[in-house]
Write a structure and sequence with these properties.
Helices cover about 30% and strands about 25% of the residues. By secondary structure, it is α+β, with helices and mostly antiparallel strands.
């Protein structure tokens, strides 16, 4: 005999099968590796309010011991770091709906004789699990975008492009000294046009010399363990620059670098081989980023929702970055009202709230996280902008 479901329908209750929402979320995210943001650690001391301080720490070598009188004590060395900036951490929100159409589909499945109770529970769980994963991924993408903008752009700015449905014209600067940025001009530019073709290379441009100079500056500051970061697509252009191809050929064949066969052999190397050799030549390894992000916005011209994509790590810039930790992700502690259906992700940093609209017959899965990637060694980031046109 057909077992008709209750007239009051709750797919979440079906998916949980008597379990806890938090356990369900933990199981979904058990194999998820989304907390790793390169160079930034998550600060587990949740902030009580939205105000934060940016603390600058030092990476320099240890100072020498002090010469004092026999009975005089040494003066303690400062280690706390300086506050170089403060502000308000922005809140991120996302929402997904389990609407009436999905409810009816699940309800019809429950009426089928060939569907077991276990299959029904798994189906409901898969649907809700997909919603939760979407929410978590959106926040992860937002934090990743923050990180790449802070490093490649020197700041994270909320604009109509990256936040079309929210607040705009808000800037979170990394406070890198202006002296740390080199902007090439005239014939020293690597390219003098936007397409970066060989015919438009600056007549006095030299990628190798420019990048080696950046490493030298870092070493003079006592920062010896560094790497370059660059947009992956822009890296292809750099690898094709004449100064780079010539240097790679010279590295492989020192006595025949100018020979056509040597240049041809160097050109046939695999991309990762070229990158590895270039890193050895300039004195620091190269890390490239192929990270595109997307937003949803309404297009007035087509009267449709669109999802434009754009690069998280800016092109036309190369950044010299210290190895290891370069910042923290600060988070405001979420506050939730008693009596609701809630779960957490990221160790209580991301809150998921489930709400019901009885008139529209749908459930909304709402997420919020108030986090900001804050660099703590901005004075040890060096930039070169090699092809402003």
């Amino acid at each position: 005999m057909t077992q008709f479901p209750s007239e009051f329908y709750n797919p979440l209750s079906l998916a949980l099968n008597g379990g806890r929402l938090q356990d369900f979320v933990d199981e979904i995210l058990a194999s998820y590796n989304g907390l790793k943001i390169d160079g930034f650690t998550w600060n587990d001391d949740l902030l009580p309010d939205f105000t934060y301080n940016q603390i600058q720490r030092e990476l320099k070598m240890e100072v020498m011991a002090q010469y004092v009188d026999l009975d005089s004590p040494a003066i303690p060395v400062g280690s706390e770091g300086d506050i170089i900036g403060s502000g308000s951490i922005p809140r991120m929100k996302a929402v997904e709906y389990y609407n009436e159409a999905k409810l009816r589909k699940l309800r019809q499945m429950e009426n089928r004789r060939d569907i077991s109770r276990e299959e029904l529970i798994n189906n409901a769980g898969a649907n809700i699990g997909e919603i939760i994963m979407k929410l978590v991924m959106r926040h992860t993408n937002s934090i990743t975008y923050q990180r790449h903008q802070i490093i490649s752009n020197g700041k994270f700015v909320l604009t109509n492009t990256n936040n079309p449905n929210g607040i705009v014209n808000v800037t979170f600067a990394n406070h890198t000294p202006s002296a740390n940025t080199t902007t090439l001009a005239d014939d020293k530019r690597w390219w003098t046009n936007a397409t970066h073709d060989v015919a438009h290379q600056g007549s006095a441009s030299n990628v190798i010399v420019d990048l080696q100079a950046m490493v030298k500056v870092a070493k003079r500051k006592g920062v010896t363990k560094v790497h370059f970061e660059i947009n992956d697509d822009f890296l292809d252009d750099v690898l094709n620059h004449t100064s780079v191809t010539t240097a790679i050929a010279a590295n492989l064949y020192p006595s025949a670098a100018s020979a056509d066969w040597a240049k041809a052999a160097a050109a046939q190397l695999a991309r990762d081989q070229k990158v590895e050799i270039l890193g050895r030549i300039i004195g620091a390894p190269i890390k490239s980023w192929n990270t595109q992000v997307s937003v949803e916005k309404w297009d007035d011209s087509t009267k449709k929702l669109t999802r434009p994509q754009f690069e998280a790590f800016n092109k036309d810039v190369v950044v010299l970055v210290p190895d290891g930790n370069i910042g923290e992700i600060l988070t405001v502690e979420p506050i939730l009202l008693a009596g609701g259906e809630y779960a957490y992700a990221y160790g209580r940093k991301l809150a998921i709230t489930i709400d019901k609209d009885f008139a529209k017959k749908c459930m909304s899965y709402n997420s919020e996280m108030t986090s900001l990637a804050v660099p703590n060694v901005p004075q040890y980031l060096w930039y070169i902008k090699p092809c402003q046109v």
